[in-house]
Write a structure and sequence with these properties.
The protein folds into three domains: 28 residues, no CATH class; 150 residues, Rossmann fold, CATH 3.40.50; 87 residues, no CATH class. Helices cover 30% and strands 14% of the residues. Helix 5 runs antiparallel to helix 6 and helix 6 packs parallel to helix 7.
């Protein structure tokens, strides 16, 4: 009975539902696009890291940081502010996950502008990033140390020394927060910066400048270091991502959620939206 049900669903939708379903879900792509179109690999992952899919094209910065784990990608530096190597009006999808927070706002503007140029009419850009600066700021303001759950992954010797001088969960909450939105400025971060801010200074600046003002103040001082791509150096909320997309020319811009893409191709958590969903935000736009 279950096998018959699976076959019925597959025949009607093209989605493979067996227990051993491939994360690539190739039958779905092959139902929606011609073999000739799939050979063009018109789906683009910007800042792809270790992502790989036979029908996707990866673009990423060449860095020793990834120790050879990047797969089949086209070298591309987002902060070079150069055009994406995609012909006008040819891309079906542009996806970028947890990338924009690692570059300066000028690089994000250039990315979104070029995405608008490169997407075909009806093409989709999906942006996922973290932290959601608004949610994380509220956690700081209410003293919710448990929100910063990832710091607990780096407690033991050998787990944190590459990035921090001490375990990140052992410092004041204000410094943990700063490390996540403007990493080079955090006093325990090894990311280079001419200035570091301690807890009392962080609180004072927040009190003086408020939510967006303090975030602009801190991230505005963060240098871009391509050799240290793990650092967060810009801040994002749903509204800010949507504003940048509209500035790039998109008019159909909307909030999304994990697994809620308008494109069925990006609803599978095996390959999409799998990075820190608790602290992430999701935005899409249609060309």
């Amino acid at each position: 009975m279950l096998n018959c049900l699976r076959k019925f669903i597959e025949n009607r939708t093209g989605i493979v539902v067996s227990r051993k379903r491939s994360p690539y879900n190739l039958p779905l792509y092959e139902r929606l696009y011609s073999p000739e179109r799939l050979k063009e690999r018109p789906f683009y992952n910007i800042g792809s890291e270790t992502f790989w899919h036979p029908y996707w094209t990866n673009l990423d910065y060449v860095s020793e940081w990834y120790s050879g784990t990047q797969k089949n990608f086209i070298p591309y530096d987002l902060m070079a502010l150069e055009p994406l190597p995609i012909n006008d009006g040819t891309a079906e999808i542009i996806y970028t996950s947890h990338t924009v927070e690692h570059i300066k706002e000028a690089g994000v503007r250039n990315l979104f502008f070029n995405a608008y140029r490169a997407l075909k009419p009806g093409g989709i850009i999906r942006v996922t990033t973290g932290p959601d600066a608004e949610t994380e700021f509220r956690a700081l303001m209410r003293g919710d140390a448990d929100w910063f759950y990832w710091d607990n992954w780096y407690k033991t010797p050998g787990s944190y020394e590459g990035l921090w001088t001490v375990p990140p969960g052992s410092v004041a909450l204000e410094e943990r927060w700063l490390d996540h939105v403007a990493a080079p400025l955090a006093p325990h971060s090894k990311a280079p910066s001419p200035v570091k801010y301690h807890a009392a200074e962080i609180r004072k600046i927040i009190a003086e400048k408020g939510f967006e003002g303090s975030l602009d103040f801190f991230t505005g001082q963060c240098p871009y270091d391509p050799k240290n791509p793990s650092s967060h150096i810009s801040w994002w909320t749903h509204d800010k991502v949507m504003r940048f997309l509209r500035d790039a020319g998109f008019t159909n811009v909307y909030r999304s959620g994990r697994g809620q893409s308008v494109s069925v191709l990006m609803r599978g958590s095996e390959q999409f939206d799998s990075t820190h969903p608790q602290m992430s935000l999701y935005v899409e736009a249609i060309r």
